[in-house]
Amino acid sequence: MKPNILVLYYSQTGQLRQILDSILSGILDKVEVSYGVIEPVKPFPFPWKALNFFDAMPETVEHLPVNIKPLSQDIINKDYDLVILGYQPWFLNPSQPTTAFLQSEFVKVLNDKPVITVVGCRNMWLHAQEKVKEYLCAANAHLVGNVVLTDTNPNLVSLLTVIRWSFKGQKAASGWLPTAGVQDQDIADAERFGHIIYKHLNENNLIDLHRELLMQRGVVLKPGLVILEQRGIKNFRFWAKYIRAKGGPGDPNRAKRVLLFKNLLLTAIFILSPLSFLTAKIKQLIMYNSLVKDVDYFKHLQFEKGKL
Ligand SMILES: Cc1cc2nc3c(=O)[nH]c(=O)nc-3n(C[C@H](O)[C@H](O)[C@H](O)COP(=O)(O)O)c2cc1C
Question: Is residue 166 part of a domain?
Fold first, then answer.
């Protein structure tokens, strides 16, 4: 009998689906794959209008997501040997459709199942993964692996290209800026993870899976990211509360606060970024030992509430 794999995911531009397809591409003849596509009832617009994009922050951060379409009973009621949950962070949290799924009744499909998370993002995913771990614990799922694909260009370059991609819909390189998103070669090379997953499924040894994924650079993590996410998530929590005090998603009463948030965030990123990079580097030197421990924690699968 071939192992039965359920792949659950949401993808706005198709990038995450490409990553998942690449991972599975070399083992499709050895496994049965079912897909459960997570879809918002009202799709998020793409390309985004800037106001809509930043207006999505408060509910993403406070885990008050949009409604999603029901997953089919055929998908939910089958028994699986493994579930692959693909998701992307939005504002340092799981994207709204992902959170909606994790809060829904359909999450029962994860009960007592081994789960691998696959993240496709710009480069900030730690806090989102902590939240996903928390939901997986609540669903009695067993996290057995994590694979993270990021845009490996320098931080400011990936920010400029993700802005061009999100607001103009242009992924392709232009001027001196490269193609946006996870590099094509990295997506193609993700095929190696599928072979590792199959080997461990076949040997009924998922306990050792993540160790081998890590050996194959399944998760690459720079210590500076821990500091940047700690700072970012504190600010997002404050702004989410401040904006929501004026109304719900799209409420014109909160538009001024959303614009203020947008302007301050962009200023912080592009103007204050060299300064905050420097202070993060100093902090990194001072806190080196505890950061090494944190990096080790975030590369692995265990969950300690409140780590970020
Ligand atoms: C509203 C929004 C917020 C995002 N926030 C983050 C983030 O906090 N960290 C990050 O690494 N990428 C972030 N991204 C990039 C996404 O994680 C993802 O890489 C991109 O949207 C493409 O994913 P797709 O498969 O849904 O098309 C954000 C994208 C959107 C649309």
Answer: yes
Ligand 1 binding pocket includes 261 (Cβ within 6 Å): no
Q: Find out whether the beta carbon of 15 lies less than 6 Å from any atom of ligand 1.
A: yes
Q: In what order do the strands lie in the sheet with 4-9?
A: 32-37, 4-9, 82-87, 114-121, 142-150
**Tens-digit pLDDT profile for residues 10-65:** 999 999 999 999 999 999 999 999 999 999 999 999 999 999 999 999 999 999 99
Distance CA 55, CA 74 (A): 35
**CA dihedral angle for residue 110, residue 112, residue 116, residue 118, rounded to 10 degrees:** 20
Task: Report d(CA 71, CA 36) in Å as an integer.
Answer: 7
| Residue 165, ligand 1, Cβ within 6 A | no
Neighbours of 76 (CB within 10 A): 15
Query: Is 264 within a domain?
Result: yes
Structural domain for 84, as ranges:
4-299
Judged against a pLDDT cut of 90, whether residue 305 lies above it is answered with yes
46 located within any domain: yes
pTM comes to 0.96
Cβ(96) – ligand 1 distance below 6 Å? no
88, 91, 258, best to mutate for ligand 1 pocket (most atoms within 8 Å of CB):
88
Look at the chain and report how many structural domains it folds into.
Answer: 1
Cβ of 181: how many Cβ atoms within 10 Å? 24
